[in-house]
Amino acid sequence: MPARHAIPQLSVAIVGVGLVGAELISQLLSLPQPSPFTLVSLSSSKRTVFSPSGLEITPSTWASSLSSSTSTLNLQQLALQLSSLDRAVLVDNTASQAVADLYPLFLQNGIHVVTPNKKAFSGSQELYDAILKASKESGARWLNESTVGAGLPVVQTLKDLVASGDKVKKIEGVFSGTMSYIFNEFSTANPGGPSFSSVVRIAREKGYTEPHPADDLNGADVARKLSILARSIPSLQNSLPAGYASVSTRSLVPSALEAISDGTEFVERLPEFDEQFDKMREEARAEGSVLRFVGVVDVEKGVVKADLERYPTAHPFATSLGGSDNIVMFHTERYSPRPLIVQGAGAGAAVTAMGVMSDLFKLA
Ligand SMILES: NC(=O)c1ccc[n+]([C@@H]2O[C@H](COP(=O)([O-])OP(=O)(O)OC[C@H]3O[C@@H](n4cnc5c(N)ncnc54)[C@H](OP(=O)(O)O)[C@@H]3O)[C@@H](O)[C@H]2O)c1
Ligand SMILES: *[C@@H]1O[C@H](CO)[C@@H](O)[C@H](O)[C@H]1NC(C)=O
């Protein structure tokens, strides 16, 4: 056996080479050698490269090697190519529904799937069931750690709690880095404070929001993460037929602005609603609380909701969050009355790619 294959190799195909994908490539190529991974394919939405024995690339050459390729990506063909390899994994670093819809095909062909893309696991029950079935039949695994809390160990912690026989009563947390930043700035223990619209405008200027802030303020991202957590709890696995769309979600997009498709125009109109947000902030403060946009999976009551809630100023959601931190509290039979808490940066390419890497190591 050649020395560089002294340890069994997992063939890695990366689809999506944006912020997270590029960082993942750099983390993979920087691993101490010998590493258990062979990078066999890279794809953007336009181009693809594939070499069954491993791509000859370095951190400084992969991008030009991909952009000079004349092959366009065909996912069916990629599934075929990977199925002829001994052990292979598809890493989906896109936010594409079209890629997510094909996970059952990859899994059927014995190819593992690792992804930070929430689309497949938080959508329709049909797709989710097809993923479960394909994985069960072929033995190929799918891993989703970086879909919730980016690199933070949220999904694995939940899985370990469930597998070890603890009873999860309630999961409660700040799951959106953008909503975290907005409310950490907007609602503090001190009186007064900046207007809601100015906080959103600054968050957008700093690149913390989606280009159209309504895509954060509508709560859908939080609802998607909640449906992934709920489906990872056996008693709730079939409780959300339409995935995130079945989650009770409070949108912070004023209804009068719902039809505005331009992000800049949206931010310009938002000050019209500052008074309403001010009033909510003052009401919370009058009872010694702050506002936080949270997600709740209440297993005992069977409630899954994304909502704007009040928390006392001494609560960890009020005291311990900074920047765009995520925080997740697991209330369980064993972790009672004091919950298990996971907290830290919940967005950014470096930590998200690390979450993907941690899943890859589970397969290595
Ligand atoms: N960034 C974060 O902090 C973070 C945190 C947690 C989770 N995530 C998740 O990680 C994923 C990637 O995020 P990102 O920030 O890296 O996004 P990004 O920078 O927009 O990169 C997306 C990549 O996907 C490619 N792509 C899009 N549609 C495709 C398709 N149909 N087939 C093949 N490739 C396609 C794009 O190709 P082109 O370059 O050709 O357009 C691009 O390379 C998303 O699902 C996101 O929700 C991100
Ligand atoms: C997430 O992945 C874990 C395996 O790590 C699995 O047990 C769980 O069912 C998955 N959940 C979803 C919604 O995909």
UniProtKB/TrEMBL annotation:
Gene Ontology molecular function: homoserine dehydrogenase activity; NADP binding
Catalytic activity, as annotated: L-homoserine + NADP(+) = L-aspartate 4-semialdehyde + NADPH + H(+)
Residue ranges occupied by any Aspartate/homoserine dehydrogenase NAD-binding domain in the UniProt entry: 16-143
Enzyme class: oxidoreductase
Binding site for L-homoserine: E210
Highest taxon of source: Eukaryota
Ligand binding (NADP(+)): G16, V17, G18, L19, V20, G21
Boundaries of every Homoserine dehydrogenase catalytic domain copy: 153-360
Pathway: Amino-acid biosynthesis; L-methionine biosynthesis via de novo pathway; L-homoserine from L-aspartate: step 3/3; Amino-acid biosynthesis; L-threonine biosynthesis; L-threonine from L-aspartate: step 3/5
Binding site for NADPH: T94, K118
EC number: 1.1.1.3
Cofactor(s) the protein needs: a metal cation
Keywords: Amino-acid biosynthesis, Methionine biosynthesis, NADP, Oxidoreductase, Threonine biosynthesis
Keyword NADP: yes
Any one GO biological process: methionine biosynthetic process
Active-site residues, Swiss-Prot/TrEMBL: K225 (proton donor)
Function, as annotated: Catalyzes the conversion of L-aspartate-beta-semialdehyde (L-Asa) to L-homoserine (L-Hse), the third step in the biosynthesis of amino acids that derive from aspartate (the aspartate family of amino acids), including methioinine and threonine, the latter of which is a precursor to isoleucine; production of homoserine leads to a branch-point in the pathway as it can either be O-phosphorylated for processing to threonine, or O-acylated for processing to methionine.
UniProt similarity note: Belongs to the homoserine dehydrogenase family.
Protein name: Homoserine dehydrogenase
Organism field: Hermanssonia centrifuga
